[in-house]
Known about the structure:
By secondary structure, chain A is mainly alpha-helical.
Amino acid sequence: MPQLRTRSEQLNRHLRAAPQLFERLRERIIALDLPPGAPLSRVELMAEFGTSVTPIRDALQRLAEEGLVEIYPQHATVVSRIDLAQAAQTQFLRRSIELEIAATLARAADHATFDALRAILARHRAALNDLTEFKRLDMRFHQAMYEAAGVPDLWALVRSRSGHIDRLRALHLPIAGKAKAILRDHGRILDALEARDTAAAQRAVHEHLSGTLTQVAAIAKRHPEYVRQS
Amino acid sequence: MPQLRTRSEQLNRHLRAAPQLFERLRERIIALDLPPGAPLSRVELMAEFGTSVTPIRDALQRLAEEGLVEIYPQHATVVSRIDLAQAAQTQFLRRSIELEIAATLARAADHATFDALRAILARHRAALNDLTEFKRLDMRFHQAMYEAAGVPDLWALVRSRSGHIDRLRALHLPIAGKAKAILRDHGRILDALEARDTAAAQRAVHEHLSGTLTQVAAIAKRHPEYVRQS
DNA sequence: GCTGATGCACTAATGCATTAGCGTCCCGAA
DNA sequence: TTCGGGACGCTAATGCATTAGTGCATCAGC
């Protein structure tokens, strides 16, 4: 993780062009506002953001490292198609980490940790009808487990690799009862952790993270132009 | 993972300046040829590699994303100190993934996979006295497991995050019998996988990956100037 | 008269703008 | 169907603006 060293760097970070461009483009790609296959013309981006090519190049290179854009040197830069293999590997990654986090917390988490997680879960339950807040607290719950297990950077890692999965989620149809299932899963995980039952906690994590990508086949058929043929 | 699209890109990739600079600098940092704290002056690098600042800037930014250099804007760019917290998190990451890989392979690997792993292990045993080949085959064994489990990109991910650990390894004293312990561990893992004994395979993986960072405290005391004070 | 602090100017290094060079793809003609 | 020319746009080079750190000079206080 690049840390912020000086006070002025903290102030300037949001003034620097390239990171801002990266974030804004990333959001638009993940929201499918920039759909897979869309060309990313540097001259258009120059006009839109009022910068020169250098910050744009930097942002596009970072996006390419996350797999969200593909740069064909000397030819073009386009939004990448959704790579189901990459999405599956990221899901494997996340499941691996969170299973191990569950084992760690079941063994060694203290009361303050459980209190913090319960507090998040309570707020999460209260946000059942506020979709953006619900999503935020969903992530917050997982992030808190990463931090409690001493691996906060791995949360950032998983997030940074989730571009393809996030785009699949954006194509998901809203499923009735999905939110309640999430709350139920989080509650089960927490109960098992507090009971120091490693196996139960891992089962709950496994189940929680297995349901996410059930519709992929249907999505791939509904939007073949969005999915990489491989 | 950025994939190579066109034939000529594959050819030119090794001609492009920035990736070459990145690789060479990375090797020198990991080998401690460029020790923590060493300044990376653009003008010196320009003179040394015969390019302009743009490829150098690209390479340094990629190194910064991997945590191997720290860029203080308008001031300096230096090789980062070894971050023990980051190293521990990377080790957690690797252990998490390989435990899950072990579960996957114990459940579903076929004979061809085991044959391939046994072949690598045999060559590995034969390379007991060739250090560089031994290290190469060590990595090859793990990489083969990632590939067999269907997550080849996660191997690249772990590798790319291993900079701090690799530098710790470079400071390790050679331990008598270390190589034989590695071979024994790999053999145990493979035996358990072939016996479809998930628990035993995971125990073997856990033990194999636990011994790596035993000397950290001693190293931090021997080379305090190399380690980030946190 | 001496010591310490404050302020200003200078140096150095990065981010960004601008420009040149060159490879790739497309399209039309043979 | 194949080959060549041209447009497109990505990489690299060069120059400029901004900013952090440093050192010296000046001034106030003892």
